[in-house]
């Protein structure tokens, strides 16, 4: 089972998106875990992650997170999908990032 980690400034603003992604995963039968955390906790979150998606409001942290997690695929969540809380689109982006 894949573990997708969402990072934002405090770990709260991605909470609603996380719930939408979980619903999309359940609806499609995709087994995964999805969690949200603060970008300051990237290294800890990476210990169990298969990929990391960063909220667009902290996109400036992308290089820093990639340095902290060199063995993981890391990307920024699409701003439109994030704003619309499009869990299915962000889940698909995570799957693509993991090569699925």
Automatic annotation (TrEMBL):
Domain of life: Bacteria
Modified residue annotations for Phosphocysteine: 8
InterPro entries: PTS_EIIB-like_sf (IPR036095), PTS_EIIB_2/3 (IPR003501), PTS_EIIB_3 (IPR013012), PTS_sugar-specific_EIIB (IPR051819)
Keyword field contains Plastid: no
Keywords per UniProt: Kinase, Phosphoprotein, Phosphotransferase system, Sugar transport, Transferase, Transport
Coiled coil: none
One Pfam family recorded for the sequence: PTS_IIB
MF annotations from Gene Ontology: kinase activity; protein-N(PI)-phosphohistidine-sugar phosphotransferase activity
Entry-linked CDD domains: PTS_IIB_chitobiose_lichenan (cd05564)
Domain PTS EIIB type-3: from-to ranges: 1-100
GO biological process, one term: phosphoenolpyruvate-dependent sugar phosphotransferase system
Keyword Membrane: no
UniProt-listed PANTHER family: PTS SYSTEM N,N'-DIACETYLCHITOBIOSE-SPECIFIC EIIB COMPONENT
Protein name: PTS sugar transporter subunit IIB
